[in-house]
UniProtKB/TrEMBL annotation:
PANTHER family: GUANYLATE KINASE, GUANYLATE KINASE-RELATED. Its EC number is 2.7.4.8. This is guanylate kinase. It comes from Canavalia gladiata (Sword bean). Belongs to the guanylate kinase family. InterPro entries: GK/Ca_channel_bsu, Guanylate_kin-like_dom, Guanylate_kinase, Guanylate_kinase_CS, P-loop_NTPase.
Length: 291
């Protein structure tokens, strides 16, 4: 009896003779060294196992040129002995909602990055952080931040409504829990924008259930230039931010990803963040948010 050899459908060899050298050469290159190392007896045994899915000789499969598609599919199913399933092949057809924590020193471009992501990924929910700082000219309440008084903020702390909060450069900033729960319940991915202190706290609360991104400028000089050009800080506040940034850079290794936002290359940084989101969605072992 003649049987076909897997991966070399054009070659038929007598089963009891094993595999001819010419056939081994035709196999995928990665298989050749393995096959060559087998004894004659083992080759026969190996190919016998590999060929278990061979079609029964009685089933007629029309040629690709002549058969119509459905006829060919039916013949292939009959040959395999079962029908082809239409269920998703991916083990993760519905990936879990993602919590993305975006952090980094002051002036590296976190807000600029997030502002672009809002347009390129409208399905993301950007958690609106509560803050006691005053709005900058272009900032909108409820969109950029929830601008609240110190009393209102401390009330939120007391009622345990914040996932984390901190005093940053003299102002309170905090992440409202309920907002995250609500959006994740709808299946949305959520993005949190926090300072390094906040990211450290969130790591303790969320552990590996969230993805932590550290945004940096290409150099310290570039970061300082951006802060100066933004014209939002006093000289004193600039000095504090630069000193803090030097300390904060030491935390980069606790993050999952680093995103370099180079001068004039904001689009590249946005694309990198989008790729990270897509890669996380394709992970076989999904993160399970702990909130
Ligand atoms: N790739 C870039 N090239 C040039 N300028 C940039 C780039 N990214 C951001 N900027 C500018 O740098 C300045 C600082 O950016 P942004 O305010 O987004 O920083 P941030 O990290 O959010 O700072 P902070 O933590 O202090 O709020 C802004 O004026 C912004 O327009």
């Amino acid at each position: 009896m003649f049987r076909r050899v897997l991966y070399s459908s054009s070659v038929s060899v007598p089963y009891h003779l094993g595999i001819p050298t010419s056939t081994i050469k035709n196999l995928r290159p990665c298989f050749s060294p393995i096959i060559n190392s087998l004894s004659h007896k083992k080759r026969v045994k190996t190919f016998s196992k590999m060929g278990e899915a061979r079609r029964p000789l009685s089933v007629h499969i029309p040629t690709l040129q002549k058969a119509d598609r459905s006829e060919l599919l039916r013949a292939l199913e009959a040959s395999i002995g079962s029908s082809f399933a239409s269920e998703p092949l991916s083990p993760i057809p519905n990936p879990n909602p993602l919590i993305l924590v975006i952090s980094g020193p002051s002036g590296v471009g976190k807000d600029a990055l997030i502002s672009r992501l809002r347009h390129s990924r409208p399905a993301l929910h950007f958690v609106v952080t509560a803050t006691t700082r005053l709005p900058r000219p272009s900032e909108v309440h409820g969109q950029d931040y929830l601008f609240v008084s110190k009393e209102e903020f401390l009330g939120m702390v007391e009622r345990q409504e914040l996932l984390e909060y901190a005093l940053v450069y003299g102002d309170y900033k905090g992440v409202p829990k309920q907002q995250i729960r609500d959006y994740m319940a709808k299946g949305c991915d959520v993005v949190l924008r926090v300072d390094i202190q906040g990211a450290d706290t969130l790591r303790k609360v969320l552990g590996k259930s969230a993805v932590f991104l550290f945004v940096v400028a290409e150099s310290e000089m570039a970061m300082v230039e951006r802060l100066v050009d933004r014209k939002t800080e006093t000289v004193e506040s600039l000095l504090v931010r630069i000193g803090t940034a030097r300390e904060e850079m030491k935390h980069v290794r606790s993050f999952d990803y680093v995103v370099v936002n180079a001068k004039g290359k904001l689009d590249n940084a946005v694309k990198l963040v989008e790729s990270i989101i897509d890669a996380e969605k394709a992970k076989v072992s999904q993160r399970t948010p702990l909130i």
